[in-house]
Amino acid sequence: MEITDFTFHKINDPTGIMESDRYEFLLTVEVDEDDELYTEAGLDLRVIMAADENGARIAHYNFMDKQTGKAMEFALEDDEEAEVQAYCRDKLSL
């Protein structure tokens, strides 16, 4: 899996319910054609990062089919999750 592009924004919490700042990342990822995640239209990874005085962590993520916009029921492997978390932390400069 290779991250080729990204966008992110801070999630506004007008209620004050969330205990940390939240950021939504939309990562464009490429996978090999023989990977079970492969779709012809492409693949995004939506990641919610929670950031507080202890650092940033992944609060939630899901793969999205670019053509349909639907979430796909796949999980990141441990090393992939660590790579995504480090990538997002770097973009947040945390």
Describe the structure.
The structure is a single chain. The radius of gyration is 14 Å and the shape is globular. The chain is 16% helix and 46% strand. It is an alpha+beta fold and 94 residues long. It has one helix at 78-92, and strands at residues 2-11, 21-30, 43-52, 55-65, 71-72. Strands 1-2-3-4-5 form a 5-stranded antiparallel sheet, with helices on one face.
Brief write-up:
This protein has one helix and five strands; from the N terminus they run E-E-E-E-E-H.
Which key terms come to mind for this protein?
94 residues, alpha+beta, five-stranded antiparallel beta sheet
For the largest sheet, list the strands in their spatial order: 1-2-3-4-5
Q: What is the multimeric organization of the chains shown?
A: single chain
Span between termini: 23 Å
Number of strands: 5
Class per helix and strand makeup: alpha+beta
Rg computed from alpha carbons, rounded to a whole number of angstroms: 14 Å
β-sheet strand percentage: over 45%
Blueprint of the fold:
Layout: E1 2-11, E2 21-30, E3 43-52, E4 55-65, E5 71-72, H1 78-92
Antiparallel strand pairs: 1-2, 2-3, 3-4, 4-5
